[in-house]
Amino acid sequence: MRILAWPIRTPWNPYAGMVFSNLPGVEVDGWPANLLRKYSVWHMHWPDSLLNIVNTPLAVYKVSGMLATMDFLRLRGTKMVWTMHNFASHEARHPELERWFWRRFVPRVDGVISLSTTGLTKALQRFPRFQDIPTAVIPHGHYREEYPQATVDSRQALGIPRQAKVVMFFGAVRAYKNVEVLVRAFRNVSRADALLYIVGNPNTEELTQRIVKEASQDRRVSLKFQFVDPKEVAMYLGAADLVVLPYREVLNSGSALLALSCNRPVLVPDLGAMGELKADFSEMWVRTFRGELNESILEAALEWASQSRPSVCAMPERYEWAHIGSETIEFYKKVISGSLAGSESARYAAAGDRSP
Q1: How is the chain split among helix, strand and coil, in percent rounded to 5?
Q2: Is the dihedral of CA 237, 240, 242, 243 positive or negative?
Q3: 280 pLDDT tier (thresholds 50, 70, 90)
Q4: Are 22 and 64 in contact (CB under 8 A)?
Q5: How far apart are CA 102 and CA 124, in angstroms?
Q6: Structure confidence at residue 169 as a pLDDT band (50, 70, 90)
Q7: Helix, strand or coil for residue 145?
Q8: What are phi and psi of 218, to 5 degrees?
Q9: What is the pLDDT of residues 23-57, one digit of tens each?
Q10: Fewest Cβ atoms nearer than 10 Å: which of 252, 266, 316, 336?
Q11: Which runs of consecutive H residues, i.e. helices, occur in the chain?
Q12: pLDDT at site 11
């Protein structure tokens, strides 16, 4: 079995690389590749990322090229597998192009992997065609092999007082992640020993300035607008008492999995698949909130994070990469054969819910 992977890896998230490096017995080529080779499956992640390209003509060119390549490979017998991370581009830069893209992309897909049951349910409702093709729920794996444990005292290395209660946001800073709201809510937290660290790169100068303006009003807020070396990821997260991801919208969260992989309790909104994450890892490690994040929610979460818990967050088997790799290979086989047997979409249709 030969797979074409797109992307085979990214500089900003090792997830795709971990998927494709855990497929024993499968030959994997990364894009761009020799399209005259015979591929069983083209497995793609984040096709919507092309819609985030600022330059409109370039975005049109990239999207059109991808669709044309899908057509060429499908004519040669290659099956198209999409792992759904999002149903829409986060930046919404090109609304008309995006509508055009989804109308043409979805009919070209031969199999769909969702990272959560919630995500698949939403996808089957939004894209009814997926009820007639193989689908599967294969969760986002952990990051423990990718980011080594810190070999230094995290707080000493970062100059953080040992008695401080540290709230941390860690990851790429985007408008939809609501970092401004987190800073604003934290400013009203009454605990003098509380500190807030924002660690990650904003993607626009405008967003940077808005966060800086909010943070400048409270000396307890530290901004680390930088790319963190993979060797230092566990050190930063190890300094946190509580990781807060206050997303305005979220389906799945690799950042939450990263925090749990580093044995940090996490506060997330009760949106998307975050309830599933809480059920899988227990209320000991995942806390959810509803509505707008405020100081009361943060203070209660800090008290919760201070409770006694094991030093290592137990990792459910379905989040282990050996399990994910074997499930992915079995799904490839179903897509290649066109079988709906055991497919999540078949169960959904059998339940009688075929709402558009």
Answers
A1: 45, 15, 40
A2: negative
A3: very high
A4: no
A5: 14
A6: very high
A7: coil
A8: -150, 115
A9: 999 999 999 899 999 999 999 999 999 999 999 99
A10: 316
A11: 15-20, 56-75, 95-105, 117-126, 154-158, 179-187, 205-215, 233-238, 254-261, 274-281, 295-305, 321-337, 344-350
A12: 82
189: left (phi over 0), alpha (psi -120 to 50) or beta: beta
pLDDT in tens, 191-209: 999 999 999 999 899 999 9
| Unique residue bearing structure tokens 């530290």 | 222
DSSP state of 202: B
Domains 2-141+320-350 and 154-305 share a fold: yes
What's phi and psi for 255, nearest 5 deg?
Answer: -65, -35
Q: Where are the domains of the chain?
A: 2-141+320-350, 154-305
% of the chain beyond a pLDDT of 70: 96
If we measure between CA atoms, which residue out of 144, 142, 146, 148 comes closest to residue 318? 142
**Is CATH 3.40.50 the right assignment for the domain spanning 2-141+320-350?**
yes
DSSP structure class, residue 148: P
Spatial CB neighbours of 164, under 8 Å, sequence gap ≥ 6: 155, 193, 194, 195
Contact 210, 182 (CB under 8 A): no
Residues 6+ apart with CB under 8 A from 45: 6, 7, 15, 16, 19, 82, 83, 85
- How many CA atoms are closer than 13 Å to the CA of 86, on its beta-carbon side? 18
DSSP notation for 335-351: HHHT--TT-HHHHHHHT
End-to-end CA distance of the chain: 35
Q: What are phi and psi of 226, to 5 degrees?
A: -160, 160
**CA distances for 116 relative to 74, 180, 257, 272, 314, angstroms:** 27, 28, 13, 9, 19
Amino acid at 173: V
